[in-house]
Amino acid sequence: MAHVRSWHEPALLVITAGALVAGGAAWLAGAKAAAELMWVGGTVVAIVPAVVWMALTLWHGRTGVDLIAVLALGGTLVVHEYLAGALIAVMLASGRTLDSMAQRRASHDLRALLEHAPRFAHRRLDGGIDTVAVSEVVPGDLLVVGAGEVVPVDGRVACGAAVLDESVLTGESAQVERNTGEPVRSGVVNAGSAFELRVDARAEDSTYAGIARLAAQAGAERAPVVRLADRYATWFLPLALLLAGAGWFVTGTAVGAVAVLVVATPCPLLLAVPIALVSGMSRASRIGVIIRDGTALENLGHATTAVLDKTGTLTSGRPGVIEVVAAPGIRPAEVLRLAAAVDQASPHVLAEAIVTHARARNLALPAPIGVTEQPGRGTSGVVDGHRVEVGRLTLPEHRPAWVEAVLNRAMLDAAAIAWVSREGLLQGAILLRDPLRPDAPRTIRRLRGAGLVRVVMLTGDRAEPAQEVATVLGLDGVHAEQTPTSKVECVRAESTAATTVMVGDGVNDAPALAVATVGVAMGARGSTASSEAADVVLTADRLDRLADAMDIARRARRIAVQSAAVGVALSVTAMGVAVFGWLPPAAGALLQEGIDVAVILNALRALRGGRHEGVAVPPSTESLLHHFATEQEGLRQTLHLVRDSAVLISESPGSQEALAALRRTQEFLDRELVPHEHAEEKRLYPALAAALGGTEATATMSRMHAEIDRLSRRTATHLALANTREGIGADQKDDLLATLYGLYAVLRLHFAQEEESYFTLAEADRHPEATHGPQP
């Protein structure tokens, strides 16, 4: 049906317009009979599909505006007003063509899910390994799953350990280890060495096949949404028929009724609404938001609830290094260098994060020798003549205080730990976590400003890290440890209560996207399946584009309603005139054309941006933002020195080790941190004040700079006193700890505020239209 409509309606427009123009040319040439014949042909060509559209509308239990068009077309033939009929035919065809552009849906057949599903399996037999179709695998078979392959069916690890990337099912980027006897679900990817799988279920009964069926069922559950134009028809149609009857009664002829129906032909609805919606979709595409059809735009324009996936939507989607902790006497940079040197040879996602982090710090990484990797345990190799191990290492029975601190910190931060040892001695640890997007808090505020009253998070992750993200972002609810099935049920419940937007980026999100009122896929990195199941695709890897799209959708819908209302009001006025026979059908058709032009011009306003409420950041300021953002990221990696010094001072304030740590901290403050803050105050903040409309916009941050400077000076005073004493005195301990912990907290908060409030502006300005706020 969609394929037929894609060529039928444009062809109808070409034929009816051609008939109108050809008839006009014949009329001017004096061939009246030929002209009327051509106009009759155009009218007849239009009336046949119009009857079909009317019948389909009535079949679905709706009273559409197409009924008026059919009556008007038929009426012009009956009373021999052929020019009026040809004009109506062109208006009807053009309206349907534009409407098909706005309403055409993309296929929801989830091709990507089927393409990702494995078709073959490697079955171990007595004589070796045989490759068979996955449909031939039965419970009890022993399969070999190679590195990088998709697990074809549900089963259990037969022996050893399997390192799996389960993000395709859970959406979580961290890899997991499954030991002998533990279950493995189909659809996950083997991220380690080859392992053997004992089959528990046939392919059609396995997890991945169930997800595909679930997504298809969810997509099929969608009820057809009534077109905006048809909603007006519930009162406009009876009014038009009533006035047509009055026209027949007053004029005493059917021509009076036809004249009313001609000006009642709902072209303001058939034209203005789809033009405004298509214009909104076009404008959204300029900022990297692809809205599949007019129905999605309408729903997006009045959505009040958003359900957001965590991984890849609110977080970056890949683990990153949040801290490097070194054993006493070892520098964190050395720990990172050793770990990254070995991990250069590992494809593990955590290893990739460590290497990326080291290279960003401009560390020279020597080539490792004799690298071996044990799935689920880590990597080892020779670096600079020493055996270095990175990963999940065996910890000493009597753990040092710094090791306990790392374990506690990892638990509190829900972080993964990569321990680093050299020649069997622990050198330090690297903490990794999927970080929150820097622009996530601003985006949530933008979404609420765009009309959302309820924002909840949906994730397959554990409750603790999920709740932490929800608390930081101020969400209204969080659903953790969700399976694909429970995600669908959750989204279905939210969609029943209100118009709901669901945002996700993984295959596991496809069923939930399909069942939501509006499914939004993060298409830049998201799976093809999620994009196939979605109504809206964000081609840029930025959630704030959704807020931009909601602003655009609201404005486009408002213009559509406005255009339709004004056009209908003018039509009703013309109908009132036609009732008394003062407006012949042909003249009425021409008047209707004038009304159409007016409402079309108004509807085209949706192509333009409304009142600009965003921040226009000039290129020079954007360059400064990028510079200071990069510099601050480097400072963040060294910020732990402040807290580490406080820990040592708390444990042994009089030791030389504590004094040395305080000296390192003060050196960091004097040479790196404070100069960075002073440079921001002198260079960045004046530039931002100009862009943001005054110094009040940066006043709070300037106050934070003053507090950072004060605490740094206080720390320097303590250090000077400790140097004269050759140790930190007991009388200094309490105030020094308060100063260091206070400085650490202020810096963490200050960095987060700058990233959220300022540094994201550089990204937002790359699409000028992205900063439009709600329009009046």
UniProtKB/TrEMBL annotation:
The chain crosses the membrane at residues 12-30, 37-56, 68-95, 232-250, 256-278, 559-583. Residues 625-761 form the Hemerythrin-like domain. It is found in: Cell membrane. It is a multi-pass membrane protein. Signal peptide: none annotated. SUPFAM superfamilies: Calcium ATPase, transduction domain A, Calcium ATPase, transmembrane domain M, HAD-like. Residues 116-215 form the P-type ATPase A domain. CDD domains: Hr-like. The keyword Membrane applies. Keywords: ATP-binding, Cell membrane, Membrane, Metal-binding, Nucleotide-binding, Transmembrane, Transmembrane helix. Pfam families: E1-E2_ATPase, Hemerythrin, Hydrolase. GO terms for cellular component: plasma membrane. Belongs to the cation transport ATPase (P-type) (TC 3.A.3) family. Type IB subfamily. This is Heavy metal translocating P-type ATPase.
